[in-house]
Amino acid sequence: MTSATWLPRHRRVTGAILAAYLVALVFVLGWPTPVDAGVNDTLLRALGWLHGHGLPAWVGYDQVEFAANVVLFVPVGLLLALELYRRPWWVAALGGFGLSVLAELAQALTRPDRFATGRDVLANTLGAVVGAAVIGARSRSRSRARPRRPAADAPARDYGPR
C-alpha cells in the first residue's frame, strides 16, 4: 500500500506545502551572506522615518530582525502541526526548535558571513510555537464544539435502568 493510498488528501497537500516551504527555508537560511544585506540601508532609513512618525525609539534593527525570524517560522509550526495532527501541538513546536538548532549549527559550520545565535533559535522557536499553538487551539475548540454522536446505522444501546 502506498502512502498516497492511506494518507488523507489534505495531509498529502499539507506535506507537499511543508516540503516546499522547507526547501525555501533551506535557501534562505543557507544563503552565503546575511539575507538582509541588500536592504539594510533601506530598512534603517525606513526605521528612521517611522521613528519620526511615532514609532517608539526602542524599536530598532534588532527588534525587526527578531520579529522577522518569528514570522519566518510561524508557517513551520502551522504546517508541522497539521502534518502531525494526531499528536499534541507542542510536538510540532519541538520540531521547529530542532529545525532552528540545525539551521543555526549549519550556518555556524558552513557560512562564515552568517551569524548563528541563540537569539535566532529563540525567535524561530517562538514562531513555531505560535504556528503550532494556533492549530492546537483550533483543533481543541472544534473537538469541544462537536458532540459525539453514534453512527446512524449503529444499534441503540440499552444501558439499563438509571
TrEMBL record:
Residues 140-149 have a biased composition (Basic residues). Coiled coil: none annotated. The chain crosses the membrane at residues 66-82, 89-109, 121-139. Keywords: Membrane, Transmembrane, Transmembrane helix. The keyword GTP-binding does not apply. Residues 19-135 form the VanZ-like domain. Pfam families: VanZ. Residues 140-162 are annotated as: Disordered. It comes from the Bacteria. InterPro entries: VanZ-like. This is VanZ family protein. It comes from Pengzhenrongella sicca.
